[in-house]
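User: Some background: our group keeps a shared notebook of sequences we're curious about, and every so often someone picks one and asks for a predicted structure to add to the entry. Today it's my turn. The entry only has the sequence so far, pasted here. Could you supply the structure so I can complete it?
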Amino acid sequence: MDRRWLLVIFLFGCVFGATDASEGDADPLYRPHSGRTYYEYTCLWHIYGLLSMNAWFWGAIYHTRCFDLTEKLDHSSSVALIGFALILAVLRTFNVKTEASRVMIGAPLLAFLTTHILYLNFYKLDHELNMKVCVAMGIGQVLLWSVWAGVTRHPSRFKIWAVVIGGAMAIFLELYDFPPYKGYVDSHALWHATNIPLAYLWWSFVYEDVEFRTSAIMKKAR
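Assistant: Of course. Here's the predicted structure to add to the notebook entry:
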């Protein structure tokens, strides 16, 4: 079997498994009837972390060993991450918890992502189209999280604002490319550099969201 098919099968097996995760999953911290406190989005964030590491790994490989296979792996991994992040943004900002609702939201987006990745790998590696798809999904996430941060009373909402503003500025570095300054730093390199503090802020928000939601569930249980 072609290695690109293995990548597609693995990525979307993980993603569909995450959207299908329900309150009956094996993790005792996730089950409401286990008598223990649980966080409703544990499995989703775990898959997001795996897809993030996968995208960073193939991005690093592609930037050091640029040929057809590594380029397609890098693009496919990035699209899978951004697409799943959009699904996760919808589920978290609208507080979707039931399995049926998650599948109804995730299935159309997964179908689109699968079609797009298959198109890139087996028909044409269209960089312009891929950029438009990624930017559209990125803007969708920014809008969802920014509106949510504006209406919620979440104690870490200011970190969301920082990530939203920083992410919006980072998108412009990808859209408006400029040549390397004195042969060293170009816009793409700066875009990668901005991901370091943004990733730290983002994962600190996730950690604090777990604490916040768990604390709220414990108060309701008393």
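Suggested note for the entry: The helical segments are 3-19, 42-64, 68-93, 99-122, 127-151, 157-175, 187-221. The chain is about 75% helix and 0% strand.
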